[in-house]
Write a structure and sequence with these properties.
The complex is a heterodimer of chains A (149) and B (231).
Chain A lengths: L1 H11 L12 E9 L10 E2 L9 H6 L5 H18 L3 H17 L1 H5 L5 E12 L2 E9 L3 E2 L7
Antiparallel strand pairs in A: 1-2, 1-3, 3-4, 3-5
Chain B lengths: L2 H26 L4 H16 L3 H18 L6 H19 L3 H27 L2 H4 L2 H9 L15 H17 L7 H22 L2 H26 L1
Helix pairs in contact in B: 1-2, 1-4, 1-10, 2-3, 3-4, 4-5, 4-10, 5-8, 5-10, 7-8, 9-10
Classes of the chains: A alpha+beta (149), B mainly alpha (231).
Amino acid sequence: MLNILKLLLPALLPSWNFFDVIVASPRIQLSLLKSADDIAEDWHEFRPRPDKLSFTQMLLRLFWNPNWNDSLYLVSCAERLQEFPTRHSEDEILKRIVLDLKSASCTKNDSAVTHVQFRLVFIHREGSELVTETTYYSRVEPLNMEVNK
Amino acid sequence: MNFELAVRLTEVIMGLAFAQQSLEHIRVAVNGRLLFIARFVLAILLVIGLQSSLIIVLLLFIGFAMLHRFDGPYNGGADRMSLLILSCLACVHLAPDLYWKEIAFAYLAAQLMLSYFISGWVKLINAEWRNGRALCDVFEFSAYPVSESLRGLAASPRVLFVMSWIVILFELLFPLSIMSEATLLVALILAGGFHFANAFLFGLNRFFWIWIAAYPSILWFQQRIFDTISV
């Protein structure tokens, strides 16, 4: 109950300081592993944004944008992991990675892939340069992780 | 706009926004799909206008459950505005008399005004916003642009400098629009355009719909304030 009140208070007394400073921005990268002891070397961005969207696609997203909103939630989870790591945020990201992999053809065709790990890469500005920094590695999770839709 | 109409309009627009959000959640839900099916049904009942008081209280409980489920807001400011509107409407329905009902609804109007003014103020006091660098960074490396091609806008610093100042000045001056119904209408149309641009460029569609749901409160508030003054 106390936790709910703590979460509700910012809604009842909002700070409204949207985009006051542009903080380091997270990218979630994943690596497919062939065993629990495999060392992750090959990292891919999770849910990369498309190169281009048409005017109509951008307009229609005003009414229907579930995947993008879910990806923005994962950005929040990544930021929470950076500030105060919790099992909840790590689970939320891992569950979505496993679900996406289960529906993707790459892992269906590659039965050797049994586990997955993600890492967080943060991009921020230092003077005129953009700097990337890897700040977090998740636990290694088997792909048969239980995820209920 | 009279009080009853403003409250009812807020309920209808918020109900539609919740229905849209719930359908999106049902599409991507990882655990807890039932929660959003229930939220969708309640949102439709709110739009229809059946047992509004009970429905709003139930929606508020679902809001608490969502906070627990996602360990905080799912969609940042949009979820916070959703809970703020719900809480104010719950107070409107449960308050013992018209005085307290109006206080609760006026609080929503005041927070809507602050949502623009404070956003403008925190940008004004930040040198990165004043020189346009912050908006360049939003396009260049933040998680928000919906496509890689939009990152190219970071290469137009003069355009983004002008855009930054348009946003800062609009947000700061928004409270002055309450001086007349006509200026408030113009400001709300511009504000709607601002949220539309954010939805279009950054995919923040939920902000667009839920902020519009709070607009009837400020339209009523403006009229209420100036009616009181003229009396």
